[in-house]
Amino acid sequence: MAKIKITQVKSIIDRSERQKRTMQALGLTKLNQSVEVEATGAIIGMVRKVNHLVAIENL
Fold first, then answer.
1. CB-CB contact of 56 with 9 (8 Å)
2. What is this structure's pTM?
3. Sheet with strand 34-38: strands edge to edge
4. What is the mean pLDDT of residues 4-28?
5. Handedness of CA 57, 12, 38, 49 (dihedral sign)
6. Which of 45, 35, 38, 33 shows the shortest CA–CA distance to 9?
């Protein structure tokens, strides 16, 4: 599978609890933090829910 790099670019302050939990599930807790994950269906679905808060790069 392909890997993607997800970087948090916006704060989760004043976001819904669901979006905060999604960011935490992706492993993002701080601004400008990045994680590298496999691009599975579940991960892609989570990224789509918070795409306005993150930047995505293909590796």
1. no
2. 0.90
3. 34-38, 3-8, 54-58
4. 97
5. negative
6. 33
What three-state secondary structure class fits 21?
A: helix
The residue to which tokens 């995505």 are assigned: 56
Q: Encoding tokens for residue 5? A: 């790099």
- What are the residues whose beta carbons fall under 8 Å from the beta carbon of 39, sequence distance 6 or more? 1, 2, 3, 4
- Using only C-alpha atoms, what is the Rg of the chain? 11
The enclosing H or E element of 43 equals helix 41-49
d(CA 2, CA 10) in angstroms, rounded, equals 25
The per-residue pLDDT for range 19-43, each reduced to its tens digit, is: 999 999 999 999 999 999 999 999 9
Q: How many residues does the chain have?
A: 59
